[in-house]
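Tokens as discussed.
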């Protein structure tokens, strides 16, 4: 996504020792470059409502469209293949979308789905869980997510865990505190440096915080700051909606929160 740096021209002939001395004289100091996200691959359409895009070896972004009643809103999820199995994160708005995703995994990856994750209780995160549960696939979420989903009469995740940290195969599930929803968690895949922020993280094109019906605006900034502190090596950050980017998505979310508080 970023072109390689141009070779030094005007300073290229300086000896390393001379260059180091000059940098010291003018008061410069070397700073490690920020982790950069790898280039994402081409998007493949599974249906009119479902697309897949590779983000890193063994990791794909899922983009699922809501129905007309929600205005055809695209929502992101993840497919993570590692250790002979697959983990699905937020597998679609509907049972039908999750069924098609399971079929793609079976036909293309040819490994079993070991587990699913819902990053909070809203329909764009839990709508596809029924398809996984029908096949006996364990579905993981914060205990509060299971409680809130049950209250709405929808299938609750089968494997609720207490806050704040839960290890699940190749990923860490982390509850940083309330934000977009009281139960929003993130998914950290250390091997690829991918942080799935879900709906508590906004994409760079977002000019508002979106749906605030269950938001905790007072806690949200602290929750994002805890992500910045816990995952400083994140290379790719995937928001709940919109395009992935780097850690600047976290800073952008904080800017929107601060602007909204003024």
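Sequence:
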């Amino acid at each position: 996504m970023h072109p390689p740096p141009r070779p030094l021209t005007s300073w290229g002939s300086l000896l390393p020792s001379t260059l180091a001395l000059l940098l010291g004289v003018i008061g410069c100091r070397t700073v490690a470059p920020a982790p950069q996200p790898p280039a994402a691959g081409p998007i493949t359409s599974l249906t009119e409502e479902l697309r897949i895009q590779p983000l890193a070896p063994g990791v794909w972004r899922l983009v699922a469209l809501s129905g007309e009643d929600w205005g055809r809103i695209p929502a992101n999820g993840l497919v993570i293949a590692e250790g002979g199995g697959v983990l699905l994160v937020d597998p679609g708005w509907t049972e039908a979308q999750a069924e098609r995703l399971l079929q793609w995994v079976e036909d293309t990856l040819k490994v079993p789905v070991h587990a699913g994750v819902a990053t909070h209780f809203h329909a764009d995160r839990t709508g596809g869980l029924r398809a996984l549960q029908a096949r006996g696939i364990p579905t993981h979420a914060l205990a509060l997510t299971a409680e809130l989903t049950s209250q709405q009469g929808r299938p609750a995740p089968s494997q609720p865990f207490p806050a704040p940290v839960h290890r699940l195969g190749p990923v860490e599930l982390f509850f940083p505190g309330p934000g977009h929803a009281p139960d929003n968690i993130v998914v950290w895949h250390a091997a690829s440096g991918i942080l799935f922020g879900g709906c508590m993280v906004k994409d760079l094109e977002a000019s508002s915080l979106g749906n605030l019906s269950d938001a905790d605006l007072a806690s949200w900034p602290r929750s994002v700051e805890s992500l910045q502190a816990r995952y400083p090596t994140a290379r790719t950050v995937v928001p709940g909606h919109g395009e992935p980017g780097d850690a600047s998505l976290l800073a952008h979310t904080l800017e929107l929160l601060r602007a909204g508080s003024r």
